[in-house]
Specification:
Elements lengths: L2 H25 L7 E9 L2 E2 L4 E6 L2 E7 L5 E6 L2 E2 L4 E8 L31 E5 L2 E4 L2 E3 L6
Parallel strand pairs: 1-9, 1-10
Antiparallel strand pairs: 1-2, 1-5, 3-4, 3-7, 4-5, 5-6, 7-8
């Protein structure tokens, strides 16, 4: 092999690496395979206008989405949009505005979502998250036994 063929081979490998890196950047996957997750939460068919959606793996919170007035959420991990791909169990919790209380008593906001959905062991909610874009809608019912 000559020096020029070694240089051409190295240039081809470098070119392929750069092209791969650009493709990963353009598809939004990134080298770590980060997952973007968004969705909508309804309660008895109506958008749930507040609350949190928590994605848990092995008992640890891995991603949290704040539910907006239209029932939509986007998952964040810390200050970063998205989360690691994987299999998750999910909880959804929303509270109503607390009623006025006498001075010195802490306000106790009533839970809007059935208690079942606040418990990772009982919620029955799960999601399989893949690298790239994911949509996870959750349709909750007030009587979770039905």
């Amino acid at each position: 092999m000559t020096k020029s063929s070694d240089t051409r081979g190295l240039a081809a490998v470098a070119g392929a690496f750069i092209a791969s890196a650009i493709m990963l950047f353009l598809c939004g996957c990134g080298p770590s395979g980060w997952a973007q997750v968004e969705g909508r939460v309804t309660l008895d068919g109506e958008p749930l206008g507040s609350g949190t959606v928590v994605f848990l793996t092995a008992g640890q919170s891995s991603g949290v989405g704040m539910i907006g007035p239209d029932g939509t959420y986007t998952v964040m991990t810390g200050s970063r949009k998205g989360m690691e791909p994987g299999d998750y169990r999910v909880t959804v919790t929303a509270f109503d505005a607390p009623a006025p209380t006498p001075p010195g008593e802490p306000p106790m906001p009533p839970l809007i979502t059935p208690l079942k959905y606040n418990n990772v062991e009982a919620s029955g909610l799960s999601a399989q998250i893949s690298a790239g874009s994911n949509r996870c809608d959750f349709d909750l019912i007030r009587d979770p036994s039905s």
